[in-house]
């Protein structure tokens, strides 16, 4: 397991896939499919960085399944009647409850390291069947991945060690299964952290919003962020996407960001975990991708 990315070859094109629950996953897959149909294929990025819901997208688009098939699968989904908590499978979760739980911890914290330690301690203190809950969540994550082995291209998936609060970054050389890496990065801790052996992990978004900084050194960086660069942490912490973009550009990277437009509707909020948000988010992303293709074609192909 690596705590920082390493490679003998510096990739030239990086695709950054941020988190935002069920809606964010669907919007990104729709956008990628729309771009591909219009001639801009993001799936061959030299480096793919996926955080939380974005880690699922990273695993899906590097699986060999065409973006159009992934998009079609979303439109064919049957929304479960039991609501987002049961669909998520990680404790008594709802979007508003989770926002209140995590927001309280953020508000009590002095800095990002303190926040991660507090978040880990709170998650570890949950009265939950850690092993059984992790097994259930792993099964759900596995069902969403067309391929359950790491791809040949470089994929980075961040998470947080719940016991130490330290960030970790999984890749194909970490000795961790792809399913476990995605399950760790998508675990929010509300109901218990995700277990891998003796370790416990929390959502990779607590490392840094979107984790675009992991693309440092790449010539071109494209960031897809369903939450439009917003961060729930204080601006002085430098966790926000804008700060990371400034850092990347200072290092010589050409960076573009893509945020959802009105075509997806108002689905990127506390209810983003609700499966009912997926079809409109995917359709909006697909239309947006087709519309953006001409603008992004030269950037991505250069």
UniProtKB/TrEMBL annotation:
InterPro entries: Acyl_Trfase/lysoPLipase, PNPLA_dom. Keywords: Lipid metabolism. Residues 15-215 form the PNPLA domain. It holds the Pfam family Patatin. This is Patatin.
